[in-house]
Design a protein that fits this description.
mainly alpha, 0% strand, transmembrane helix, EmrE-like, AA-Vitamin_Transporters
Length: 304
């Protein structure tokens, strides 16, 4: 798989995640972020493990739970909480801070050199986020912003650890995603049952929303995302995460009737420019996973 194809398929993940905010506010029952995270992770994770027929082994048991805690158990509830308390474009735009987090952690943990042009792209993305968030005060909520920042910080750390630990030999991306989704879902299960409970009513729209989040936003997105993290320079997927606020913003404007000020529109343009600049200037480095690249179809059809 060439770099362009890898970038494009990896980009499908944040594009799918950008729909989360609209789905949450328009389809899902309010006040149940833990339940939403549980249904998005555990069924999809168990299905992925069943399809791949691979379980973690050795140290990968605790590594899977550590990654599942960061990428799933912490991120999902914070994501849905932010989506409930903030307008979709504002909530997703906070994800634009992730490139700065990934850039700093990549230098500290992975000892990757920070290129000036990459730092400019990350700073431009963060600046664009700040401008987008500076909307009318009535549309902002402190806890919503903190939840969104906490979510992207957790996934930023998870991204760095995913890059550092790689993927076990002989384990495909579907199984790898399934381990983390299952681990995160198992952590959310007792919290959901004892702290939040199940919504009193789940109508057809909510059922459709949960199904979309578990499939397109769950097993498919995370399979492509984790593969991209392991094969691209760490800042590249970090900048691709900016697609999430872009998609959420467009959906908010087109479907939910949200309105942006001129200052927020400038922030949107800066965010988009940072995404494009970052993908142009990043170059592939030595790959940590040197096995031939495998497509999702290859993984699902491979003999076990």
């Amino acid at each position: 798989m060439n770099r362009v194809t890898l970038v494009l398929t990896t980009a499908l993940a944040p594009i799918a995640w950008g729909t989360t905010y609209l789905v949450t506010t328009e389809l899902l029952p309010a006040g149940h972020p833990l339940f939403a995270g549980l249904l998005r992770s555990l069924p999809a994770g168990l299905l992925a493990v069943a399809i791949s027929r691979r379980l973690p082994h050795g140290s990968w048991w605790w590594k899977s739970f550590a990654l599942g805690a960061l990428n799933i158990a912490a991120f999902f509830p914070l994501l849905f909480l932010a989506a409930e308390r903030l307008p979709g474009g504002v909530a997703a735009a906070v994800a634009g801070a992730q490139p700065l987090i990934v850039l700093a952690l990549g230098a500290l943990v992975l000892h990757e050199r920070i290129r000036p042009i990459t730092a400019v792209a990350a700073l431009a993305g963060a600046g664009g986020v700040a401008l987008v968030v500076l909307g009318p005060a009535a549309e902002l909520d402190l806890w919503g912003v903190l939840a969104a920042l906490g979510g992207v910080t957790a996934t930023g750390v998870g991204m760095i650890l995913t890059k550092r630990w790689g993927r076990p030999a002989g384990v495909g991306p579907v199984a790898y995603a399934g381990w983390q989704l299952s681990a995160g879902g198992l952590m959310l299960l007792p919290l959901t049952l004892f702290a939040e409970g199940v919504p009193q009513e789940i109508d057809g729209g909510a059922a459709l929303g949960y199904l979309w989040l578990a499939t397109a936003g769950g097993i498919v997105a995370y399979t492509l995302w984790f593969r991209g993290i392991q094969q691209l320079p760490v800042i590249a997927p970090g900048l691709l995460a900016l697609l999430s606020p872009i998609v959420a913003t467009v959906l908010g404007l087109a479907v939910a009737g949200e309105r942006f000020t001129a200052l927020q529109a400038l922030g949107f343009v800066l965010t988009l420019g940072a995404l494009v600049l970052g993908q142009v200037v990043t170059r592939p480095k030595a790959q940590t996973d040197r096995r031939p690249q495998e497509s999702l179809d290859d993984v699902l059809s491979a003999p076990r």
